[in-house]
Amino acid sequence: MKRPRDIAWETVKSLIYAFVAATIIRLYVFETMLVPTPSMVPTIQVGDRLFVEKITYTTREPKLGEIVVFWSPTPDERAQLMLRAFDKFMDLFAPREFKGHVKYVKRLVGREGDVLEIKKGPDGKYHLFVNGKVPEQLKNIEYYPEGVFKYPDFYKWLYEASKLRKSPYAYRNFLMDLLRKTGEVGLYVKNREILSQGKKEGLKPTVADLIFSIVGGYSTNGQFYPGAPYDGYYEKYLKKLDLGKYIYRAKDGHVVVKIPKGFYFFMGDNSKESLDSRFFGFVPRKNVIGMPILRIWPFNRFGPVQE
Question: Which of 96, 137, 183, 218 is the most buried (most CB within 10 A)?
Answer without folding.
Answer: 218
